[in-house]
Amino acid sequence: MLVTFSSKAGADILMLSQHAKPLLRIMGKLDGVELPLRGVFMPEHLTQNILALEQATALAPQPRETDDQSQEPLSQPVGLRQRAFPLLELLKRAKDKNLPVLWVAGSAW
Question: Less crowded by CB within 10 Å, the N or C end of the chain?
Fold first, then answer.
């Protein structure tokens, strides 16, 4: 399933649900296993959400690079920092403009 994060503060971010779930869980938007069909990050809570995501990415281990992986960039693992970066930037822009960030789960096609 595809999850779309959107805000008037920046471009939409598309993420597979398996990658979006950990990020939403870190920010307190996901309690159980099931991903809600839609949700919102309200402007007044963005500071907390950003802080939670920054703390989690700072503590997350970086994927180890081996000689084999350095030759083929597409085969390198993607860590939490790389996954969270676009969403974190959108959250920061939305905070600066005092705008909400919405998400919708479902296929875009």
Answer: C
